[in-house]
Automatic annotation (TrEMBL):
Annotated protein name in UniProt: Coa1 protein
Top-rank lineage group of the source organism: Eukaryota
Pfam family, one: Coa1
GO BP term, pick one: mitochondrial respiratory chain complex IV assembly
Membrane spanning residue stretches: none
InterPro entries: Coa1 (IPR014807), Coa1_fungi (IPR042432)
Amino acid sequence: MLLGLRQAVRAAPTQSLRTLTTGFGAVKCIKPVFNQTRCYTQVTVDRELPDVMKAKRQNLKYFGIFCGTMAVTLYAIIKYEDANSPVVSSTLLALRQSPLTRASLGDNIRYKTTVPWISGSSGIAGSEVDFRYSVVGDSGSGVAHFRAERRKGEQYFVVTDWSITPNQGEHQGETISLQNEELVPSL
């Protein structure tokens, strides 16, 4: 088929534009500059193309589901990064080793939920770190709070608040300062 088309084009080189009819549709051959012939096939569709705007509501629904899924995924990634931040991990380690915390919450101190909710900022890129999260032990639960700031021109952070507030037990609702203990989290 292709060989026959080329022979037909070469047979009449005087025409600059011609149309040949084949079994696949009409073929237009153009002879532009530099005496090179180029052939293009015109394809015709025997049925009507689908209207993409017909299902506009359905497309908007799928787009909304996609955006919602992306937002939840982004949120989960950010919360996972907060929970695995070195600063948050060091505060949890300090809580586990603190005698005051073990006295009020018991042993086996861990995050209260499987996916911990870290509220506040735990990134050390700025001049202030301030966050809280819920913890639970064998005999109670509480909220740990850590706050540190870096003064202008200084290299190191200074811990201004390191405390735990038990939700149960004899010290319920009372803030216990952990700054005077041996192991204070550092940045």
